[in-house]
Design brief:
Elements: E1 15-22, H1 36-50, E2 55-62, E3 66-73, H2 76-84, H3 95-101, H4 112-116, E4 149-155, H5 165-174, E5 178-183
Parallel strand pairs: 1-2, 1-4, 4-5
Antiparallel strand pairs: 2-3
Helix pairs in contact: 1-2
């Protein structure tokens, strides 16, 4: 009832962990019993059950692209169910990219394909960039300074598609996010 009033933002002690799980075809290998994927799923489930109840956990899968399998939550059953639903992927090219790369079309032609790909036809600008204000310049923070969240990366370490892992790690570090990697062991060839 009294005026004026103000909203005061207080820091939270909420912890968030993102499990980034490799679901590329190389995780099908059986050099780790029973397979790389099954070993990664078992490790992720063990990790989830060992976390304190206040920790929110999210799950992201990646192959050629990344997808959120489970948004951060403290519901352990939902997290474990998301881990059980993993399916190995091969990153397919987009239908538009495949069509444009066929011999019938050239990306430099003024075709439907060329108009749909940013930069392919310099006379046109992509619709998603029209009228957008400029973003403020990003200022990196000290690595590890964002203490309420971490990323745990479970992978076999083979990067053959998608973004450069070193560049991705740099981006996370510039934002203060700590990234821990868990890689499956490989047998050495005799």
């Amino acid at each position: 009832m009294a005026r004026p009033s103000a909203v005061v933002t207080l820091p939270t002690h909420q912890r968030t962990v993102i499990l980034a799980m490799d679901t590329s075809g190389s995780m099908r290998a059986t050099d780790v019993e029973p397979s790389r994927m099954a070993a990664a799923q078992a490790a992720a489930k063990s990790f989830v059950t060992d976390q304190p109840r206040g920790t929110r956990i999210g799950v992201v899968t990646f192959a050629g692209t990344a997808a959120v399998a489970q948004a951060p939550t403290d519901n352990r059953e939902e997290i474990l169910a998301a881990i059980d639903r993993f399916q190995l992927q091969r990153p397919p090219p987009s239908a538009q990219e495949s069509s444009c790369r066929s011999r019938r079309f050239s990306l430099t032609q003024s075709s439907t394909c060329a108009r749909g790909i940013p930069g392919a036809n310099p006379r046109r600008s992509p619709l998603d960039q029209a009228g957008k204000p400029e973003k403020p310049e990003f200022k990196p923070v000290p690595p590890g300074s964002y203490t309420s969240a971490v990323i745990i990366l479970l992978t076999d370490g083979q990067s053959n598609v998608g973004p450069d892992p070193i560049e991705s790690a740099r981006i996370a570090a510039e934002r203060g996010v700590r990234v821990y990697t868990v890689a499956s062991a490989r047998r050495k060839a005799r």
